[in-house]
C-alpha cells in the first residue's frame, strides 16, 4: 500500500469546508459600481408614500432568518430609490411584541445640509396581515403574505460583567449591543447617582482605538468616533464622548443611549436607578423608563457630544486632579 497523503472524497470535502470558512473571514468588498447603480434606481413597484408597500418590499428582501443585534431590538435597514437614501427599522419592542405588535418606520436619511426629511411610522399587527408569534426564548416568527421570517434577538443572557470592573457602590444593569457593533456594560453608581457605559473588551473591539496626543488616557475610535477614558483604577475604558456630526445625522455612531439592555434588565433595579439619578421624572414612567403616552424615554447619555478632540482634554485634566474616587468618577459625566 502506498504511503503518504490520502486525497479522497472526505479530505476533499474537508478542504472545501476550510476554503469556505476562510472565504467568510475575508473583508467584503464594496464597489462604487454597485453604489452608482443603486442611486440610479428610479422605476420601482415600491410606493414610498404607502407604508405597507415599503414594508412589503423590505420584508420580501429579507433572508429566511435574520439576527437583531441591537439590544433595544431594532432591526435596521437602508436602501436607495429615486436618488435618495432611505433608512428605517423593524422593531420587536419588549413592551408589546408578545401581544403581536411590530413597529415599522422608514425615513429619508438625515443629512447636515438638509436635516430631516420625509418619515413614516406605524405599529403593525393582524389587521395589516402581519402576524408575530414567539417561537421560544428570544426568537420570533414574523409572517406576511404567506411567508415567514424568523427574527433572532441577540441573546446576551449569559453575559456577566468582569468582577474587577465594578466598584463597591456600582451595580451592573445589563449588556448593551450598539448598532455600531460596539458592546458595553451598562453600570449605575448608587453613590454618585450616575450611569456609565463601560467598553466590553472581552472580545476584539471592532474599531481602531487611537490615543489623543495631548491626553494619552483618552482614546478615540477611528471608525465610530466613540471616545473613551482609560480608567486605570479599575482597568476599564469608559465612554466619554460621541462625535456631534454623528448625532446630528442620526448615524449608527450617535451613541448607545437608544440601545439599553431591555431584554436583560431587572426592572425593579433599573427603575430605582432611574429615580435615583433623575428624581424629577414622573412616577408614571414604566419599568423601562418610557413616559406615559409614548412620548419618549428617559435619556441615559452620560457622555459628551464633541466636535474636535480638544473638547475632551478637560476630562483628562479633571481626572488627573482628582484625589478621591468621587471627584474622579464625576469627571466622566456630561453636563449637557
Describe the protein.
- This protein is α+β, with helices and mostly antiparallel strands.
- It is built from seven helices and 16 strands.
- It has a five-stranded mixed sheet. A four-stranded mixed sheet has the order 1-8-7-6. Strands 2-3-4-5 form a four-stranded antiparallel sheet, with helices on one face.
- The radius of gyration is 23 Å and the shape is globular.
Read across the widest sheet, the strand sequence of neighbours is: 12-13-14-15-16
Based on CA atoms alone, the radius of gyration comes out at 23 Å
Shape: globular
Percent of residues in β-strands? 25-35%
> Main sheet?
5 strands, mixed
Number of strands: 16
Question: Structural class of the secondary structure composition?
Answer: alpha+beta
Order of helices and strands: HHHEEEEEEEEEEEEEEEHHEHH
Number of helices, where a helix is a run of at least 4 consecutive DSSP H or I residues: 7
Q: State the low-pLDDT regions, or none.
A: 1-13
- Overall pLDDT level: 91
Q: Helix coverage percent of residues? A: 10-25%
Gap between N and C termini: 79 Å
What count of domains describes the coordinates?
2
Keywords for this entry:
about 325 residues, alpha+beta, 2 domains, 5-stranded mixed β-sheet, about 20% helix, about 30% strand
Summarize the topology.
Layout: H1 9-24, H2 32-39, H3 51-61, E1 65-68, E2 74-81, E3 84-91, E4 102-108, E5 119-124, E6 130-136, E7 139-144, E8 147-153, E9 170-177, E10 183-189, E11 194-199, E12 209-212, E13 215-221, E14 227-231, E15 236-243, H4 244-248, H5 267-277, E16 304-306, H6 313-321, H7 325-330
Amino acid at each position: 500500500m502506498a504511503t503518504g497523503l490520502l486525497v479522497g472524497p472526505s479530505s476533499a470535502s474537508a478542504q472545501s469546508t476550510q476554503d469556505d470558512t476562510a472565504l467568510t473571514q475575508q473583508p467584503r468588498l464594496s464597489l462604487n459600481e454597485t453604489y452608482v447603480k443603486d442611486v440610479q434606481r428610479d422605476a420601482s413597484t415600491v410606493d414610498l408614500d404607502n407604508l405597507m408597500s415599503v414594508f412589503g418590499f423590505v420584508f420580501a428582501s429579507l433572508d429566511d432568518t435574520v439576527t437583531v443585534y441591537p439590544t433595544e431590538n431594532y432591526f435596521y435597514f437602508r436602501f436607495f430609490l429615486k436618488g435618495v437614501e432611505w433608512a428605517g427599522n423593524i422593531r420587536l419592542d419588549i413592551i408589546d411584541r408578545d401581544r403581536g405588535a411590530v413597529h415599522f418606520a422608514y425615513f429619508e436619511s438625515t443629512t447636515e445640509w438638509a436635516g430631516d426629511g420625509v418619515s413614516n411610522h406605524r405599529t403593525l399587527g393582524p389587521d395589516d396581515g402581519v402576524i408575530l408569534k414567539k417561537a421560544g426564548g428570544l426568537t420570533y416568527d414574523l409572517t406576511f403574505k404567506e411567508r415567514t421570517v424568523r427574527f433572532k434577538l441577540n441573546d446576551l443572557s449569559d453575559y456577566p460583567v468582569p468582577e474587577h470592573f465594578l466598584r463597591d457602590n456600582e451595580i451592573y444593569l445589563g449588556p448593551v449591543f450598539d448598532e455600531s457593533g460596539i458592546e458595553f456594560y451598562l453600570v449605575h453608581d448608587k453613590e454618585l447617582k450616575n450611569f456609565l457605559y463601560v467598553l466590553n473588551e472581552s472580545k476584539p473591539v471592532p474599531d481602531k482605538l487611537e490615543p489623543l496626543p495631548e491626553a494619552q488616557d483618552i482614546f478615540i475610535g477611528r471608525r465610530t468616533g466613540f471616545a473613551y477614558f482609560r480608567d486605570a483604577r479599575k482597568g476599564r475604558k469608559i465612554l466619554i464622548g460621541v462625535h456631534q456630526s454623528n448625532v446630528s445625522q442620526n448615524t449608527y455612531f450617535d451613541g448607545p443611549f437608544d440601545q439599553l439592555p431591555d431584554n436583560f434588565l431587572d426592572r425593579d433595579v433599573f427603575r430605582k436607578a432611574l429615580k435615583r439619578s433623575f428624581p424629577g421624572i414622573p412616577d408614571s414612567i414604566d419599568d423601562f423608563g418610557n413616559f406615559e403616552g409614548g412620548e419618549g424615554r428617559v435619556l441615559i447619555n452620560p457622555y459628551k457630544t464633541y466636535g474636535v478632540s480638544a473638547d475632551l482634554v478637560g476630562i483628562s485634566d479633571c481626572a488627573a486632579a482628582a484625589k478621591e474616587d468621587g471627584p474622579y468618577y464625576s469627571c466622566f459625566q456630561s453636563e449637557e
